[in-house]
Amino acid sequence: MKGYISLMRPLNAIMASLGTIIGGIIARESLSALYFYRLYIAMATVFLVLMAGNVLNDYFDADVDRINHPKRPIPSGQISRASARVLAIVLFATAVVVSVFTFNLIQVIIAIIAILLLITYEWKAKALGLTGNIIISLLVGLIFVYGSLSIRLSYLVLILSVMAFLANLAREIVKDVEDVRGDVNRVTLPKKIGKGLSLVASAVFIVIAVSLSPIPYLFFGWKIFYVFVVAISDILFIASVFFSFHDQTVGQNLIKVAMIFGLIAFLVGSSI
User: Fold this and answer.
1) Is 132 found in the same domain as 20?
2) Helix H or strand E encompassing 30
3) How far apart, in whole angstroms, are the C-alpha atoms of residue 76 and residue 79?
4) Does the global pTM surpass 0.85?
5) How far apart are CA 108 and CA 93, in angstroms?
């Protein structure tokens, strides 16, 4: 049982699936969104999809993990690749069934699309570098939209999703620059256009994301509290650009922290 839990990594899945709750709160612009049961159905769907994705990741990386992570469940012999494949299929299928109880056809379709994108990523796109980065970043942004659809589709959530997509894409590129020597089997952006231009591309995505942050205050009447918190996020994002050119580890970690402050800012703005 311990091997299966390690394979699914439920704690990571729970943390990521909380994005659906955030999306719902922002869509409702109130903590009363927490009383909508459909929001928790959406969260459960995302939770199952993410766990299935973790299993699929270890399934496809089994050969590499024998060298890099020999203690993981599959390379250590705790779980066979065939069993992992079956588990991933069961989790994906359960996610689709659970999504039906959102009683929202769009959410069911999005769940299926997300599953297909995850399979595509692990099967082929991961090795293609930028294509894989785009897929993962798209899925990150989609979590907030998926949650909001349990309440209503909100322009504010769409803004957050675009910002999350751009910030995560920037971070993925910085990580690829950091790992360029070790990425033997991946055709990443730094391998195609070089480290310098890749970091410039990452910086452009960050600047666009930051430029979107004033919109809720300027056009949707959010209070000044939002501005104070999002300013911290923006400063960290801009700082990450400068650090990324010198130390990619610090740069990508700053992007991650900036994203967290961005989420807090949106929660503050939508709830006060």
Assistant:
1) yes
2) none
3) 8
4) yes
5) 12
